[in-house]
């Protein structure tokens, strides 16, 4: 197994994890953003920001992975490439989790402020 193949697997698995996160969050997020009439114009902005930042956080997680030297790569067995990909996915999953947590907190604060404003 070559290092380029391992990096390609890491990139594919990171993209799949982003798509999985979007599939889970997309429907409920669109319904929440549609429920408040004052955010109708901002709905496209918030959904595009979600997609872009999830994608960039996954790419940043891949870029942060330690690249082994050429000498190290020559002595690697197949299982070491598997663990290298798994180690790279760890940083991708942390980046996605932290961003989704922050995004949910920001939307909760936004809705609590707008709900109070609309109730007055």
Overall form = elongated
Q: Based on helices, strands and strand pairing, what is the structural class?
A: mainly alpha
**Main beta sheet:** none
Order of helices and strands: HHHH
On the 0 to 100 scale, the average pLDDT is 81
List low-pLDDT spans.
Answer: none
What's the helix count? 4
Beta fraction = under 5%
- Distance from N terminus to C terminus (CA atoms, Å) equals 64 Å
Task: Domain count, please report it.
Answer: 1
Topology:
Layout: H1 3-35, H2 43-63, H3 70-74, H4 78-119
Provide a descriptive summary of the structure in words:
By secondary structure, the protein is mostly helical. It has one domain. It has 4 helices and no strands. The protein has helices at residues 3-35, 43-63, 70-74, 78-119. Helix 1 (3-35) packs antiparallel against helix 2 (43-63) and helix 1 (3-35) runs parallel beside helix 4 (78-119). It is elongated, with a radius of gyration of 19 Å. The model has no long low-confidence stretch (mean pLDDT 81).
